[in-house]
């Protein structure tokens, strides 16, 4: 996965995930990578339109690889953080954080 790729996001723990109220998936574009919670970088995805989860509405998703040792490849499982702002290029622990929206979404690079 690299900047400019389209990424299809779907699934999760719930049968009807809150972050997918109108469709079975969303597609966004990788716009940058930032420091994540662990050693791997997190991917920042811009969606073409905003989604709402609880009281947060935004079109920026931060994807963190879910499994230890995982790398950014063509498909995998990620945590989703929904942001109504552009996250800073600093460690997750040191930056403003968005809403934790999903712990086990699937991604596929298009």
Q: How would you portray this structure in words?
A:
The relative contact order is 0.27. The mean pLDDT is 94. 0% of the residues lie in helices and 54% in strands. Strand 3 and strand 4 form a beta hairpin. A six-stranded antiparallel barrel has the order 1-2-3-4-5-6. The protein has no helices and six strands. The protein is mainly β.
Portion of residues in beta strands equals over 45%
Q: With helices defined by DSSP (H or I, 4 residues minimum), what is the helix count?
A: 0
State the order of secondary-structure elements, H for helix, E for strand.
Answer: EEEEEE
Q: Structural class, please?
A: mainly beta
Number of DSSP E strands: 6
Low-confidence stretches: none
Give the SSE layout:
Layout: E1 6-10, E2 25-35, E3 41-53, E4 56-65, E5 75-83, E6 99-109
Antiparallel strand pairs: 1-2, 1-6, 2-3, 3-4, 4-5, 5-6
Label this structure with key terms.
110 residues; 54% strand; single chain; mainly beta; globular
Quick summary of this structure?
With 110 residues, the chain is mainly beta. It has strands at residues 6-10, 25-35, 41-53, 56-65, 75-83, 99-109. 22% of the residues are buried.
């Amino acid at each position: 996965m690299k900047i400019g790729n389209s990424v299809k996001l779907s699934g999760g723990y719930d049968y009807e995930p809150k972050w997918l109220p109108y469709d079975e998936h969303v597609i966004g574009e990788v716009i940058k990578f930032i420091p994540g919670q662990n050693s791997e970088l997190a991917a920042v995805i811009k969606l073409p339109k905003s989604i709402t989860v609880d009281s947060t509405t935004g079109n920026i998703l931060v994807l963190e690889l879910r499994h230890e040792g995982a790398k950014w490849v063509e498909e995998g499982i990620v945590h989703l953080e929904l942001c109504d702002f552009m996250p800073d290029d600093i460690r997750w622990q040191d930056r403003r954080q968005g809403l934790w929206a999903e712990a086990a979404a699937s991604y596929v690079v298009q």
